[in-house]
Amino acid sequence: MIEARLADPGNTSQEKSRIGYEYVLLSHEGLCAAFQREDEIIYDVARRKGVVVIDASRQLTGRDEMFHDHIHLSEKGSQALSKAVAGELARIMREGKAA
Fold first, then answer.
1. pTM
2. How far apart are CA 99 and CA 90, in angstroms?
3. Contact 96, 46 (CB under 8 A)
4. How far apart are CA 88 and CA 43, in angstroms?
């Protein structure tokens, strides 16, 4: 699964103030680049292993109301993630991609 996170290139100053850069020792641009590289690696490994990736980031990343802080989901975010994962799992099962 691709992780959802608050850090996104389009973050406002207020959103950036909620991101714990001191934990990762990266600038905003560096953190966004690291997440992008992480996502690329996950997709690459999944492609080589023939497994499906659920991309929670696509629906939730950068959406301030979905997060308590830079990575922990709010109640609204948790509900959105649950719904997104359930929908993707249902699609995978319908398409017969589950092992």
1. 0.85
2. 14
3. no
4. 16
**Cβ contact 74:60 at 8 Å:** no
pLDDT for 95: 87
Residue 94 CB neighbour total at 10 angstroms: 9
Fill in the amino acid letter for 63: R
**Please, which residues bridge with residue 73 across strands?**
67
Which residues are CB-contacts of 51 (< 8 A; sequence separation ≥ 6)?
A: 99
Cα angle value 30/32/37 (rounded, 5°): 90
Whether residue 6 contacts residue 16, with contact meaning beta carbons closer than 8 Å, is answered with no
Tokens read off for 80: 């959105």
Rounded Cα–Cα distance for residues 87 and 91 (Å): 6
Q: In the predicted model, is pLDDT for residue 19 greater than 90?
A: yes
**How does the average pLDDT of the chain come out, rounded?**
93
H helix runs in 21-74, sequence order: 21-24, 28-49, 56-60
At residue 30, what is the residue type? G
